[in-house]
Write a structure and sequence with these properties.
Number of helices: 7
Low-confidence stretches: none
Helix content: over 70%
Strand content: under 5%
Structural class: mainly alpha
Shape: globular
Mean pLDDT: 95
């Protein structure tokens, strides 16, 4: 069998397209009110494909990976995979240390969400408090309100 001489398309353009396309398709499935087991497998695969394509883009920055790993954590929290939700939240945080408060706030939101899946209310409360501090530092009102809305939903879920 002969080896291919390489793809007959622009690989960089493909990475650019699929990084965003897979992220958006995963988000659509995440927002779907009911998912089949096949949807859930596709949801995880789409997120991982998005991260893969970001990792292969020359313009990949920590903020892109922060968002990708945040989405991975969110997906696993929704699917009730506590260990994976926590693992990806920790990776998200590691990508976010030098980023603006929006990204740090969402990293702690992911850690709080993962803790809630594990029924660890104390850890969730700690991360919610840290995320709330970061939210207060976000300059752009739309971004600040988005994070606060997500934190309020988690706080409601954490309340008995």
């Amino acid at each position: 069998m002969a080896r291919s001489s390489g793809p007959q398309f622009d690989v960089a353009a493909a990475h650019e397209y699929f990084a965003a396309d897979c992220f958006n398709k995963a988000w659509d499935l995440l927002e779907k009110p009911t998912r089949t087991p096949e949807d859930e497998r596709l949801l995880v695969a789409l997120n991982q494909a998005s991260i893969y394509h970001w990792l292969n883009r020359p313009d990949c920055e920590p903020k892109n990976l922060s968002v990708g790993y945040w989405q991975a954590s969110r997906i696993h929290a929704v699917l009730r995979n506590a260990a994976e939700a926590r693992r990806y939240a920790e990776v998200c945080l590691s990508c976010s240390h030098d980023l603006p408060p929006f990204f740090l706030g969402y990293a702690h939101e992911a850690l709080a969400r993962a803790a809630l899946v594990r029924n660890d209310a104390a850890t969730a409360a700690d991360h919610l408090a840290t995320a709330t501090k970061h939210a207060a530092l976000i300059g752009r009102q739309d971004d600040r309100e988005l994070l606060i809305k997500d934190l309020d939903e988690l706080k409601s879920a954490a309340s008995p």
